[in-house]
Amino acid sequence: MTTAGRSDLLNLRSVVLSNLQYQHYWTNIKLLDTRADLDEKAETDSLPRPMIYGRPPEQLYNPEPASTNESSSSEKPPADMEYVLPVHLTEKLTLRAWASVFDTLPTPSGGDASKKRIVVAVVSGDSTVVYYIMHDGIVKPRQN
Question: Which residue has the higher pLDDT, 11 or 36?
Fold first, then answer.
């Protein structure tokens, strides 16, 4: 990737970072640039794209059905940490590009690689950010 291209991606990430912090109140935010940012034991190779890792204020969509035996306490468990991939609205990412992003992410606890997901932050020309959840593979819809 060219230096100019990497610079554009870093600028895109800064727009998303600001949006997550100041409009959506995410916490524990970490910027991810190398594989070592994901795992201390990994090499320092660059990630395919700069990413963000953080905790939303509430749990994002969960495809698993809600348990009916949940405790009646009003206290909610903390939301899971999420990976965020900033992309520009005009970008055309190939399946190979998506696969390389998912391949760099560590397998979630429990060892099920099919549960990998990222929050895709799509930024338009006026800096509007829209978020989508993208899973690695097929995920069965939640039954209500």
Answer: 11
